[in-house]
């Protein structure tokens, strides 16, 4: 795992709740168990067809209403929420993912000049820190960091060459063909935005600035796509429903305020429409309506872990920690593979202030960290657990881990040093405190590296 992965993964917890304080144009990386699950279902077969190990490819969701998707710093795929919300069919989203995977397979992103690489690393970390600071209860610091995150756009200033674009197109079509899927999505996606070809460079969506669109490109794609599609299987109903639910969730949480009403009029009684309305009610702090609408969803689909998650989130965020435990517990039972759901439950249990519940939260956080060792928010909550149990050395160590995961090396050093003073060196925790001290020691940081994240690159084996 590279530094980019470590930092971005550090943003954890109920991510879409995190997104709420921001305006629709704010950027940030978001985490969401349901959306990540769906994107994995869509992308992993394509990664495999490209000869990549899905576990080695990181998928990041960027909260940004503009249209964009790109690969950076190796096997890292970034998808803007704006792009996910604009795709009309699973084929379109899969087509875009297949094309981006083509850039990875073709090694296009790694051949960029070093300056580009440096810019992307810095910006990503900025995003991660901003989001985390918000979690840690320092929204001012978070906003300041987000304010300086304009560099994030730097990553897409570069343009692929026409040769790289057509090579990524061909790779992408190969991957769709290998997985037996229709290849019409990519040309159809470009058709919707064909007018961008006629616009001046600066007015185009970022996606079409970095991936130049042209009539030649669309017609070349369309021809070969048709022959692949002729042999393909149609997308399953489940796949189609997944995109609809993911879009409804994004529109509800981060779309422009009036979007839910315009996209999902009251007459629309579909599950996605109900989902979007439940989330919109929550966002508007109409807790009663949000709970009623969410309960309707649960009654219709009692084994959906994400409906339970939403119910738990609504209750927790409205100050009802005890009531939020049940739905969060059910979400973990329904989808035990998601670290984020375990962290939600742990947070609710901690909120009840009961000793037994805090003990249970400890176990959940340790499980979550086994799945995502770089989940800084889980470390943050574990520090809260230890502090409330009077285990100050362990709490300091967990705080050091949290700081280390977000690249705040000076803070990591201070807390690791405090932890080492309190813990026995011949215990695993004492050893770990000693390790973090060494890793975060200013003397061990490379010269000229930016303070704050230099050390995260030193040890990627956690
Ligand atoms: Zn491209």
Report what the structure shows.
This protein is mainly α and 462 residues long. The protein has helices spanning 3-9, 15-19, 33-49, 81-86, 90-105, 114-135, 139-147, 162-178, 185-192, 206-210, 215-230, 237-254, 259-263, 271-283, 287-300, 305-317, 321-334, 339-351, 355-371, 376-388, 392-405, 409-422, 428-439, and strands at 29-30, 58-62, 69-71, 76-80. Strand 3 (69-71) and strand 4 (76-80) form a beta hairpin. The protein has 2 domains: 3-230, Zincin-like (2-Layer Sandwich); 241-457, Tetratricopeptide repeat domain (Serine Threonine Protein Phosphatase 5, Tetratricopeptide repeat, Alpha Horseshoe), CATH 1.25.40.10. A 4-stranded mixed sheet has the order 1-2-4-3, with helices on both faces. Helices cover 62% and strands 3% of the residues. Helix 17 packs antiparallel against helix 18 (339-351). Zinc ion (ZN) binds at residues 99, 103, 160, 165, 168, 211. Zinc ion binds at residues 99, 103, 160, 165, 168, 211.
Spatial shape:
globular
Number of domains: 2
Mean pLDDT: 81
Distance between the termini: 10 Å
SSE layout and pairing:
Layout: H1 3-9, H2 15-19, E1 29-30, H3 33-49, E2 58-62, E3 69-71, E4 76-80, H4 81-86, H5 90-105, H6 114-135, H7 139-147, H8 162-178, H9 185-192, H10 206-210, H11 215-230, H12 237-254, H13 259-263, H14 271-283, H15 287-300, H16 305-317, H17 321-334, H18 339-351, H19 355-371, H20 376-388, H21 392-405, H22 409-422, H23 428-439
Parallel strand pairs: 2-4
Antiparallel strand pairs: 1-2, 3-4
Helix pairs in contact: 1-6, 3-5, 3-8, 3-12, 5-8, 5-9, 6-7, 8-11, 9-11, 12-14, 14-15, 15-16, 16-17, 16-18, 17-18, 18-19, 18-20, 19-20, 20-21, 21-22, 21-23, 22-23
The structure holds zinc ion (ZN).
The site of zinc ion (ZN) has 6 residues, from helix 5 and helix 8.
